[in-house]
Amino acid sequence: MTSSFPPGFRWGVATSAFQIEGATTADGRGPSIWDTFATLPGAVAGGDTGEPAAEHYHRLPEDLALLTGLGVDAYRFSVSWPRVQPSGRGRPERRGLDFYRRLVEGLRDKGIEPFLTLYHWDLPQALEDEGGWRSRDTAERFAEYAVLVHEELGDVVDHWTTLNEPYPCAIAGYAEGRHAPGAREGHGALAAAHHLLLGHGLAVRAMRARATSGQRFGVVLNQSPALPVTRSDADIAAAERQDTLLRRQFTDPLFGGRYAPGLTTMFDGVSDFSFRHDGDLETIGQPLDYLGVNYYYRLHVADAPHREPDPARRTAADIGVDTTRLPDVPRTGMGWPVEPDGLTEALVGLHHRYPGLPPVYVTENGCVYPDIVDERGVFADEQRIAYLREHIEAARAAMAAGVDLRGYFCWSLLDNFEWAHGYKHRFGLVHVDYPTQRRTPRASYHWYRDHIAACRTA
Ligand code: IFM
Predict the structure, then answer these.
(1) Mean pLDDT (the chain, rounded)
(2) Is 130 a residue of the active site?
(3) Domain containing 393: what range?
(4) How far is CA 12 from CA 21, 71, 289, 383, in A?
(5) Got the DSSP string for 35-96?
(6) How far apart are CA 433 and CA 445, in angstroms?
(7) Candidate list 165, 185, 240, 345, residue with the active-site label
(8) What does the alpha-carbon distance between residue 424 and residue 408 come to, in Å, rounded to a whole number?
(9) pLDDT in tens, 353-376
(10) For the domain that residue 420 is a member of, what is the CATH number?
(11) Of residues 21, 185, 364, 418, which has the active-site annotation?
(12) How many domains does the chain have?
């Protein structure tokens, strides 16, 4: 397997700010929507919050050493918007920016390429108070923030990702209420999806106008292909609705020069689409240098009645589908079906659907299993190793089918705050004991290190 990856293929790991940094009130950081959401009763399992997370903000040298020990070529991380602009606008908080400069310079010193993400779900609460992503103004604020960070770190960062996974931001956050800010809306959630895309386009346009020649701009999308559970017309149509909501709502404007056909029909009576303005499609469809694909599982979709028959009260999550009928395949510790060929399908499908698709990275892939500690005290996560090996093989199969895949990032370097699940589920190659903050590399860390080394020498 190792010899099948071309020289220059990047092996990396990924994290995000809110999930690992902790230090939520340090050095002038303002509150984000996740700080607020986590205080709502029942919102996050166990009442967990962004504290302590992995205290990465205060343990940078130790975490840089873990990255060096792993031998990765690249590290994907996100900048916390409320650390840089505590109220979402205006002058930057210098201490927040200094942290990211230390991080990026530390990576560069060790020969690790920084892949910076500007937005991984932690909207400044002050902007949510003004409407959040429902509001067009938030897209403008995002572009200003992007330019600010780009001006500050453009000398040391070449890979600039605007958004991580706009789908859960909009739908889990503004329709299902499972994520911050916890809203259950129809029009508001669809407007949020549109404004996230608009903010992406405005940010790319503004950063590119100021960019140096080596800089690259991209976006990261979660891709769960939807398979109908039977070949009935109703289930096939349900799978198409699911795919329209989760994938094509984003990929069609970004790479296809159009809004996803069918989206307006699906939400007839739930939302008007007055948030779409003339010229938005062109802004959103800025040429990109890369697409990041996050893949964890495939969806199996059956037709189901709308949960809320009154269209006026339906949320944008209610599209008349049932995604609970899973095939008889192994599951991860979160109950997600393990289907590596879904990654090949996602990558090859994008390649065929969008002829001008930019080069692609797998920017997240990983899993959770209950920890098994052997008699020597080793976190023996053989299931994670098997999962990673099979998915890397699936990525290689996509390359063999013509996909221009440039790298693979494992999620995640460290155990972290898994959003509404709190600290219960652990994705890390490195175990974090939260009370002591002791870091212990799991067997998968050593396996991935050896895999990367073998690819280099193949
Ligand atoms: O932890 C998340 C990450 O923040 C976004 N992508 C999916 C991961 C696992 O759920």
Answers:
(1) 97
(2) no
(3) 2-457
(4) 19, 9, 18, 20
(5) HHHHTSTTTSGGG--SSSTT-GGG-HHHHHHHHHHHT-SEEEEE--HHHHSTTSSSS--HHH
(6) 16
(7) 165
(8) 26
(9) 999 999 999 999 999 999 999 999
(10) 3.20.20.80
(11) 364
(12) 1
